[in-house]
Design goal:
It is built from seven helices and 27 strands. It is of the alpha/beta class. The structure holds adenosine monophosphate (AMP) and magnesium ion.
Length: 410
């Protein structure tokens, strides 16, 4: 089997995964879910012309030429708080006191902020004056939020495949969308493997390490919008690996994610179990860290096997597993946003597409990066101390200080 590029491997994974079925949820349960249908505004937003300031609703023409030395005085015929529909009409020489968010009365075409008038009484409960003197002209539309300026009735405000964020829920609430169709959240069965692994509660024993990957990966999975089924630790034995994989099947996992046991060691059973019980699509990718990345299926359930080294597992997650979960959850694939950073030290690579742990800082608008900690794939502290992954393209072996490269901010 030839060595796949990172892009080829990701494409192969995404091609094998389909969005899960849709379900209907109340708005308050929909954060981080992905829309299964586009949302169309069923009315204009805002739904009526309203004031963006506390002030006076006026006819702009009435204030033409107003200055501090040539002020204009208007009669105040009404007081319009937020939440009511005004019944009066503003005619030449008239105005109405108006609050932020209150409906603009018919006839008025602008609002003059209270600060630009001689009306200085801002006390709570102060009555509107009988007249107001204005020292400034306004243009029609000033301090008015026009009906439909945010969104028009019939306009698509959110496309299908959109991951719902806090601000999206606010917009849907404004539009009165209380229930919506979203994709089901992917159920991911997670296991670690290796005879050296012990649960984190255990005291250290000679030759053993605590199972870190379960914790890193389940936090990443939840962050990516997945439901995690924790299977625990498989021993380096075929029957133990199969027992946990069968538990994943019994729990109707949409995808199985494992770490370790996919190198070429004598006890790395995962690849052979896939070959016997499913499909081994590929098991090596031209990247660093994380070359022994395994993909296939176990008894028909898609399977991604990350390398065991904690840094490799983390990087492999960001490069392959996050997009895979987004696909299952209903999102179309979009390359993750990159930023350009300037290297503050020389960087060596080995020609594979490399993801180096770095600390990115901003000085005067320039992002500069230096490597964080020891870059060995077992050194988790490098990601703990870093805040970014530098992406060194395949084929590049050295980059001098001062050169630029792409980075993912973490
Ligand atoms: P392997 O892929 O099985 O060859 O493991 C590679 C390295 O990763 C070994 O040093 C393992 O001890 C380590 N490793 C594997 N799984 C974990 C885990 N869950 N937590 C911490 N280290 C691990
Ligand atoms: Mg192992």
């Amino acid at each position: 089997m030839s060595l796949l590029s990172v892009d080829e491997a990701r494409l192969l994974i995404l091609e094998k995964l389909k969005p899960l079925e849709a379900e209907t949820l109340p708005l308050e349960k929909s954060a981080h879910r992905v829309l299964a249908t586009a949302i169309t505004a069923n009315h204009d937003l805002p739904a009526f012309d309203n004031s963006s300031m506390d002030g006076f609703a006026v006819i702009a023409d009435d204030l033409s030429g107003a200055t501090p030395s040539t002020p204009r005085t208007l009669s105040v015929i009404a007081d319009i708080p937020a939440g009511i529909q005004p019944t009066i009409t503003i005619r030449a020489g008239q105005s109405a006191r108006i609050m932020t968010g209150a409906a603009l009365p018919p006839g008025a075409d602008a609002v003059i902020p209270v600060e630009e008038t001689d009306f200085k009484n801002r006390d709570l409960g102060a009555n509107a004056p009988d007249s107001v003197t204005v020292m400034q002209s306004v243009k029609p539309g000033d301090s008015v939020r026009k009906r439909g300026m945010d969104a028009r009735k019939g306009q698509i405000v959110l496309p299908a495949g959109h991951g719902l964020r806090a601000q999206d829920l606010g917009l849907l609430a404004m539009l009165g969308v209380s229930r919506l169709k979203v994709y089901r959240q992917a159920r991911i069965a997670l296991l670690s493997s290796g005879d050296e692994l012990i649960p984190i509660e255990s005291p250290l024993q000679p030759g053993k390490v605590r199972d870190a990957n379960t914790y890193t990966l389940s936090a990443l999975l939840e962050d990516a919008g997945a439901d995690v089924i924790r299977l625990g630790i498989a021993a380096d034995r075929r029957d133990s690996v199969m027992e946990l994989l069968d538990t994943a099947c019994e729990n109707s996992a949409d995808l199985i994610l494992s770490s370790a046991g996919v190198s070429v060691g004598a006890f790395d059973f995962i690849k052979s179990v896939l070959e016997e019980q499913g499909i081994l699509e590929f098991w090596r990718v031209n990247m660093r860290p994380g070359k022994p990345l395994t993909f296939g299926n176990y008894k028909g359930i898609p399977f991604i096997g990350l390398p065991g080294n904690p840094v490799s597992a983390f990087v492999g997650f960001e490069v392959f597993v996050r997009p895979a979960i987004e696909r299952l959850n209903g999102m179309p694939y979009r390359a993750r946003l990159r930023v350009r950073v300037r290297l503050s030290e020389q960087i060596e690579s080995d020609g594979r597409e490399s993801y180096l742990r770095a600390e990115v800082q901003e000085h005067d608008g320039v992002l500069s990066a230096r490597l964080a900690g020891h870059q060995g794939s077992g050194n988790l502290l490098s990601i703990v101390q870093g805040n970014a992954l530098l992406i060194i393209p395949a084929g590049v072996k050295s980059l001098a200080a001062g050169k630029e490269t792409d980075a993912w901010l973490l």
